[in-house]
């Protein structure tokens, strides 16, 4: 009888626990966001990101477009890689990026793309 009661209480406890989502859901991309932009975010939110490089930029500079989930633009312009000795990143790979805080796009390996003022 004690085993059944213990099993029953355990079952009730386990069923009462919330199921936590471990993978972020990628929202639908609004029409204002370029097709090449990709989602960078986690369970608490994120942004759509488009990073580009061209020959007119310095070695440590990239062009960035950051869009909120609504499609509104958060930032558009030049961004600089920090530390400066890390001039090359896999900028077209979504897995390169870890998050956006409003003026910094965090890159794997303790790198950052900072908004140029």
Automatic annotation (TrEMBL):
Signal peptide stretch: 1-16
Superkingdom of source: Bacteria
Keywords: Signal
Protein name, as recorded: Lipoprotein
Organism of derivation: Pseudoalteromonas sp. SD03
Classification of source organism: Bacteria, Pseudomonadati, Pseudomonadota, Gammaproteobacteria, Alteromonadales
